[in-house]
Amino acid sequence: MKHQHVKAFVQVADSGSIRAAARALRISQSALTRAMKELEEDMGAELLNRSYRGVSFTDAGKALLGRARMILATIDRARNEVQQISGGAGARVSIGITPVVATTIFPDVYRRFVGAFPEAQMTLKEGFMTEIIPGLLEGALDFGVAIATRDELPPELVFIPLCPTHLLIAGREGHPLAKAKDWGTLSKARWILNLTNGSTGHHLLHWL
Could you say which of 21, 23, 180, 195 has the lowest number of CB atoms within 10 Å? Predict the structure, then answer.
C-alpha cells in the first residue's frame, strides 16, 4: 500500500468526487482513477462505488478510511519528530478544545506554552466532543481539552483530569430559584439547553 495511494484515497473522501479530488491533488482524473484501482487490488476489495453521480464508499472503503487517516497522521508525526532530531523546524502539536475551554482557561495556557516553547507550532481546533473525539482516534489531533468524564470517552483514549470544574447558575434577585441549595430544586425547573455532546448543557442535564 503506497503512501500516495492512501493520500489520494483520503482526498477522494474529503472532496466527494474523483474530479474534485484530482483537482485538489493536481493530477489528472485518469491518474487518480488508476491509483484507486491499484489500491483496491492491493487491498483485495472494492473500496468505492462509482456512478454518474460521483463516488461513495463500500463497507470495506469505510473501514479503511479511518485507518487511512491514522496512517497519514502517523507519517506526518514521524516526519515532524525526525525534523526535530535533525535540527529542523520546531515541534508541532494539534489540540482540540471545546468552546468553554477556549474562552476560559486556554488563553493563559496558550501564552505560557508559547513562552516556554517559542519554536513550537500549536494548531488549535475548536469544536464539541463529537468533533474532537474522532480527531483524536484518527490521529488528526494530538490532545483534546474539554469538560468531560472518563465514561464519556472511548477506552482507546487516555483520560487525565487537569483541574476540578466549578459551575455557577446566575439569576435575577428574587427569582424562585435564587436561593436553591441543591440540584434537586434546580431539576424541577424548565431549562433550554444545548445538548451537544461535551457542551455545558450536556453536562448540566447529566447533573440535574
Answer: 195
